[in-house]
Amino acid sequence: MAFSSALILWSLLAINMALPTLATVYTVGDTSGWAIGTDYSTWTGDKIFSVGDSLAFNYGAGHTVDEVKESDYKSCTAGNSISTDSSGATTIALKSAGTHYFICSVPGHCSGGMKLAVTVKSGKASDATPTTSTTTATKSNSSSASSVSPIVAMFIVSSISYYVLRML
Ligand SMILES: [Cu+2]
């Protein structure tokens, strides 16, 4: 009984240590890719994006991935883009919280559906402390500072009770 609970706590500890390192790469539109005729608001609907995740846009020739401001996203205006790429495989790292907007700058494509708004969360609650460190550093800090220690404490307590029970 005590042995199995110690085992469970070990597994919890392992899972907890693994989680903060998982940065997700989302393939935009999944198998549809970045194309006209895909509803990207449906695609984003069931996803939670966090700082550190990435967007992978896959598309054929004749398209672009432009990061734009909200107003340009709404009006499908190209020309003031924050960044642009037409390589066919564009990976965008989501480095800051808030909403990021992407359109295809080829005339008619944005209004044809090639527009994507992604709301990015700041990640783990303890990541809210703004520092100058990189995302990776912040994440490893948070995992040692807040996520792991309660589990470690629980494990120590359970180990002690296991040995106490074994001695009885
Ligand atoms: Cu296009």
Automatic annotation (TrEMBL):
Keywords: Copper, Electron transport, Glycoprotein, Membrane, Metal-binding, Signal, Transmembrane, Transmembrane helix, Transport. Coiled coil: none annotated. The chain crosses the membrane at residues 147-165. It holds the Pfam family Cu_bind_like. GO terms for cellular component: plasma membrane. Residues 24-122 form the Phytocyanin domain. Residues 125-144 are annotated as: Disordered. GO terms for molecular function: electron transfer activity; metal ion binding. Residues 1-23 form the signal peptide. It comes from the Eukaryota. This is Phytocyanin domain-containing protein. It comes from Glycine max (Soybean).
